[in-house]
């Protein structure tokens, strides 16, 4: 991935509680970063996480629709065995 330049960015405005802005300012000072840099990275991380989560949910829905599921009782039994002397192998999708 190539380094990001000013031409690769844009500006947008958000409203945050005053307390959040003050905390961000303290964090920026402590980390020797700008508020803008910290906020941009926080937004980028959030977007990446949400995109990943939505993709995983969609994959799960597709698996369920195709019948690739494991019965609740099988998973419950496996999880209940964790940390015991008789820990079970994870159940497999039929």
Annotation field: number of helices: 3
Point out poorly predicted stretches: none
Q: Characterize the biggest β-sheet.
A: none
Straight-line distance between termini: 40 Å
Structural class: mainly alpha
The rounded Rg comes to 22 Å
Percent of residues in β-strands? under 5%
* Oligomeric nature of the chains: single chain
User: What coarse outline follows from CA principal-axis ratios?
Assistant: elongated
In short:
With 94 residues, the protein is mostly helical. Helix content is 59%, strand content 0%.
Index terms:
94 residues, mainly alpha, 59% helix
Can you describe what's shown?
The chain is mainly α. It starts with 17 loop residues before the first helix and ends in a 13-residue tail after the last helix.
């Amino acid at each position: 991935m190539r380094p990001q330049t000013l031409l690769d960015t844009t500006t947008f405005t958000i409203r945050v509680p005053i307390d959040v802005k003050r905390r961000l300012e303290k964090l920026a000072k402590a980390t020797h970063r700008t508020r803008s840099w910290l906020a941009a990275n926080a937004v980028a991380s959030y977007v990446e996480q949400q995109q990943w989560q939505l993709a995983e949910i969609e994959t799960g829905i597709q698996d369920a629709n195709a019948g690739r599921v494991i019965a609740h009782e099988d998973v419950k039994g496996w999880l209940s065995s964790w940390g015991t002397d008789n820990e079970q192998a994870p159940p497999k999708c039929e």
